[in-house]
Design a protein that fits this description.
Strand content: 35-45%
Structural class: mainly beta
Largest sheet: 5 strands, antiparallel
Radius of gyration: 25 Å
Helix content: under 10%
Number of strands: 10
Length: 199
Amino acid sequence: MLAAAPPGPMVRAALERALAVPGARLEVLSIQAPGDDGCAVESAEALGMVRGSGRATVRLTGRMASGAGCASAVFAAVRVTAPAWVLTRPVRTGEPLAGAARLEEREVRPGHLPVATLSAETTVARPLAGGTVLEAEHLAPAGPAPGAEVEVVVNARGLVLQQSGRAVPCSRGRACALLPSGTRVEGSWTDGRLLVEVR
């Protein structure tokens, strides 16, 4: 029955399944359960994804002694920690992060997902203070700086065209270039080239 001792293992398993932070560890600090309502709990499901420390809701379902179905909810206080890159010193815009950050275990707050992987070429998009836990918004997009000459490969339904262009600013996660004709193209950086797929 759902009594003073809530089904902790089921609640924890439900929260683990809902954890949406790669490589994270989840700790259940407390579970606030309703009073004994005679419901024998059979399953637990988190309502929503767990994206950081805070309060999570878990729906419990089961059966009453009469055989009728029943449901209730419990609230769990959780602490989420994950490997995060933390700056060991201040860095300037465009400065490579090689040797300027170390991997530490840090608490994850909702809306502040830490960066889990860095390459030697990764740079920052703005000046940052030492001790900053790196997030995606802190990093400059991959690829050459705006204005640099780039090789553009356009794949138009199997017809592959290649020419030079100039890198221009683009939305996060994408790469853009301006061709000599004045046409702006958008794609992704692949093997040091801007690959544009035309369907």
